[in-house]
Amino acid sequence: MKREVSKKNKRLLITGGAGFIGSHVVRRFVNKYPHYSIFNLDALTYAGNLENLKDIEGAPNYTFIKGDITDTDFINGLFDQHQFDGVIHLAAESHVDRSITDPLAFVKTNVIGTVNLLNAAKELWINTPLRQWPRGREGLRFYHISTDEVYGALGESGFFTEKTSYSPNSPYSASKAGSDHFVRAYGETYGLPYVISNCSNNYGPNHFPEKLIPLFINNIINNKPLPVYGDGNYTRDWLYVIDHAVAIDLVFHKGKNHETYNIGGFNEWKNIDLVKLLCSLMDKKLKRKAGTSEKLITYIKDRPGHDLRYAIDATKINKELGWKPSVTFEEGLDKTIDWYLQNEEWLKHLTSGDYQKYYQMQYGDR
Ligand code: NAD
Ligand code: TYD
Q1: How far, in Å, is the centroid of ligand 2 from the Cα of 212?
Q2: 58-94 pLDDT, tens per residue?
Q3: Are the C-beta atoms of residues 351 and 209 closer than 8 Å to each other?
Q4: Is pLDDT above 50 for 99?
Q5: Which of 42, 148, 237, 313 does the annotation list as catalytic?
Q6: Catalytic residue check, 80
Q7: N or C: which end of the chain has fewer CB atoms below 10 A?
Q8: What is the pLDDT of residue 347?
């Protein structure tokens, strides 16, 4: 199929767009680039929720496609049909605790699913005769969204840079590391134009309540225990999700091919300190007596293979692309808590599983 390709009609596939980070990326691209056609491909697993995108579902430049990245024929057919010029790949199994109980699900989606997408992009962009791409290969790009967890664990000091060796410790981070290696290998072997970013822990609106911050907000609202793993002295570097979406926009448009960019908040918190801050903010918001929520903290058996500390050195993206976080942690956490308090229906749908029954009826198995 021959088609004029220009900046005006870029056809962009975003995978995992119904998830936490993906929904913020889809919203940003749909609103900011009305001349792009944005295709959101998502299998709507337990983590995918189209309620996240209600505000843009009717936009003329937006199409939702329900489908599974592990389905080779389906993915090949999709690339053939839509002739994408760009891919931003976020679809993944993303929760460390689930990867400990079901590692194979992570290999399937994160590794095989990514290789399926890479093969389809290679077929279209590299193996399709150039005459069918009037603008040549300029502007084609496969952007793989990865995590800082591929670098393994840090001790009390030091930072992950783009040159830090991979040393994944959980089945989740091993599967993400595997997918990163495949992306890089397709660049080296077949000349596929790619870029990768590795980001620290995100937080913000639409975060599924199995991860630390939204789980604890939900439990505080409902007066349930706050299960802190081990002694709580594990450190994460937290970034507001909308700042991640801004960084993704920049890397997609301005990053260099075959490069990696680390994205992080320069915002390290020990879990227990973060939980105590959250408790005191929630007490104020819920007009409860100071100290009420802290009483819910319950230390439980540690996560196996628990990484002690993550911390990103985001100098490269700052110097080369001018990116830096726009909100402080206190501001971001404040906005996040407000969002959850104003969207208790969203939380209730997720915790009851109602949203999945609804999408099953609406979209069937695909
Ligand atoms: P998420 O679990 O909230 O969303 C994942 C989305 O992918 C869901 O909508 C789900 O339905 C979809 N999906 C899962 N399997 C699929 C399949 N086989 N086919 C099609 N769609 C499928 O995840 P998230 O937290 O938004 O993370 C998005 C990406 O960012 C992931 O690649 C993750 O590794 C990466 N990342 C996340 C964080 C974080 O703190 N959450 C930090 C750095 C990097
Ligand atoms: P999580 O949100 O699962 O992200 P990740 O494991 O990808 O960093 O966990 C963040 C930190 O919080 C991590 O050190 C594990 C810890 N944690 C708890 O102590 N209790 C919990 O219930 C959860 C979900 C996480």
Answers
A1: 5
A2: 999 999 999 999 999 999 999 999 999 999 999 999 9
A3: yes
A4: yes
A5: 148
A6: no
A7: N
A8: 87
Alpha helices in the chain (DSSP H): 20-32, 72-82, 96-101, 103-106, 114-125, 171-190, 212-221, 241-254, 271-285, 315-321, 329-342, 344-352, 354-363
Active-site residue 36, yes or no?
A: no
Please identify, by atom number, the ligand 2 atom nearest to the C-alpha of residue 306. Answer: 14
Q: Which atom of ligand 2 is least distant from the CA of 213?
A: 2
234: which 2 tokens?
């594990």
Q: Would you place residue 366 in the very low, low, confident or very high pLDDT band (cuts 50, 70, 90)?
A: very low
Say how many CA atoms lie within 13 Å of 153 toward its Cβ: 11
- Residue 195 scores a pLDDT above 80: yes
Strands 201-203, 62-66: pairing is unpaired
Query: Is 149 a known active-site residue?
Result: yes
Residue ranges of domains in the chain: 11-274+279-363
The rounded mean pLDDT for the chain is 93
Q: Is the pLDDT of residue 360 over 80?
A: no
What is the CATH architecture assignment of 11-274+279-363?
Answer: 3-Layer(aba) Sandwich (3.40)
Closest CA to 303 of 355, 231, 253: 231
Query: Of 149, 162, 243, 307, which residue is the catalytic one?
Result: 149
**Whole-model pTM?**
0.96
pLDDT of 97 above 70: yes
The CA distance from 63 to 231, in Å, is: 46
Tell whether ligand 1 has an atom less than 6 A from the beta carbon of residue 49. no
